[in-house]
Amino acid sequence: MREIVETVFWALLIAFIVRYFVVEGYYIPSSSMKPTLIPGNRVLVAKFYYRFYRPHRGDIIVFRFPSNRKKNLIKRVIALPGETVRIENGLVHIDGIPLQGDQFNREYFNVGNYGREEQVIPENSYFVLGDNSHNSDDSRFWGYVPFKNILGRAFLVYWPPRSIQILR
């Protein structure tokens, strides 16, 4: 009996450490990240990643919503601290240069309090957008994500099996 209790204790302790400090699964509840992530997808998030690196443009991150820290969101990093971001004619411009590449090959709408005019990203903060700009509550509406709110980097869709993919 003692061996069983010890085994269960150590298994739970290891699971706790892995979940809270290493990697955790998250459920995608909305279509704000379509087509990259669709409702019902489950993703793995590396919670340790940003202890060693700073977020890069294009990273898909999970973070605590700035105005309600009990709520977690998932979005794509668009602008980094100190950069100037502007959305115009469906394109995102960083320091006056339109973003290019597959991760940003979509139309973005310049709506919301922070999406209509040029913004300078504060120190230790990030501007994030959903891939589905038409249906995403993101930095255009509520502002910037402080670095301290970032929980980790999404790196893998693991459910459903037909959707398994490494996220870029």
UniProtKB/TrEMBL annotation:
Active site: 32, 75
Catalytic activity: Cleavage of hydrophobic, N-terminal signal or leader sequences from secreted and periplasmic proteins
Assigned protein family: Belongs to the peptidase S26 family.
UniProt-recorded name of the protein: Signal peptidase I
Domain Peptidase S26: 2-159
Xref: PANTHER family: CHLOROPLAST PROCESSING PEPTIDASE (PTHR43390:SF1), SIGNAL PEPTIDASE I (PTHR43390)
Superkingdom, taxonomy of origin: Bacteria
SUPFAM superfamilies attached to this UniProt entry: LexA/Signal peptidase (SSF51306)
Gene name per UniProt: spsB
Cellular localisation: Membrane
EC number: 3.4.21.89
One cellular-component annotation, GO: membrane
Native source organism of the sequence: Candidatus Atribacter allofermentans
GO molecular function terms attached to this record: serine-type endopeptidase activity; signal peptidase activity
UniProt-listed PROSITE patterns: SPASE_I_1, SPASE_I_2, SPASE_I_3
